[in-house]
Amino acid sequence: MVNFITRFIVLTFILLAFYACTDEYIGIGREVCYEQEVAPLILSSCTRSGCHNSADRTEGYDFTSYEELLRIVEPGNYAGSELYKVITSAFNTMPPDPFPRLGKEEITTLALWIEQGAKKDVPCSEILCDTLDVRYSTTILPILELYCNGCHAGSQPQGSINYNSYAGVKETVDNTSLLGSIRRDRGYVAMPKNGSKIPDCKIRQIEKWIAEGAKNN
């Protein structure tokens, strides 16, 4: 009897959690840009070495391709899409341990993109490039989280580059690998790996932050 009650409580909790999640992102109206928001997030979180890239094709998937990503997306139905299910599941979640899970804001972006039809050709809004007030906490960190932390954070960051803390970021500033890689200068490994170059605006912001001393501000 006790076991039955326990199972009932657990099942009820799971169902409540599921239905709460399926309503969580409905009604948000902003338009999501695939090239600027979705692609960098997928590339950073899902295409690292040994995962869903063109070389490894883990489980037969290569998410460096928009067409391949659509294999696990049901346009117009984020809750029914395999992509949404695996990034929100409490079991066998993706990205797998020890890599960091996606945050709520990142999940919201993907869910909204799917709900809007998972389009690739939606015009991206022109982004104002603010290079006047560039700070680590409000400007640089969000760039790194979107484009870099999928591989270079968590308990086993790749390439011995650890962006879990400011100290790790500062190390790549001091040895010039951060700027050299994102600008794709000769002699550096182009980053993000498997993806397009970081937008020029964001590179200019990083350049300005470094020129001003790369402060932890």
- Span of the ends, CA to CA: 57 Å
Q: Name the average pLDDT.
A: 82
Q: Per DSSP, what share of the residues sits in E-state strands of 2 or more residues?
A: under 5%
> Would you identify the regions where 5 or more consecutive residues have pLDDT less than 50?
4-23
Order of helices and strands: HHHHHHHHH
- Describe the main β-sheet briefly: none
Helix proportion:
40-55%
The total domain count is 2
Tell the overall outline.
Answer: globular
Q: What is the count of β-strands?
A: 0
Tally the helices: what do you get?
Answer: 9
The SS-based structural class is: mainly alpha
What is the gyration radius calculated from CA atoms? 19 Å
How would you describe what is shown here?
It is a single chain. Helix 2 packs across helix 5 (104-115). The protein is built from nine helices and no strands. The chain is mostly helical. The chain starts with a helix and ends in a 6-residue tail after the last helix. The protein has two domains: 2-115, no CATH class; 136-211, no CATH class. It has helices spanning 2-24, 34-46, 66-69, 82-88, 104-115, 136-147, 166-174, 177-183, 200-211.
Fold topology:
Layout: H1 2-24, H2 34-46, H3 66-69, H4 82-88, H5 104-115, H6 136-147, H7 166-174, H8 177-183, H9 200-211
Helix pairs in contact: 2-5, 6-9
Labels describing this entry:
217 residues
Give a nutshell description of this structure.
The chain is mainly α and 217 residues long. It has helices spanning 2-24, 34-46, 66-69, 82-88, 104-115, 136-147, 166-174, 177-183, 200-211. It starts with a helix and ends in a 6-residue tail after the last helix.
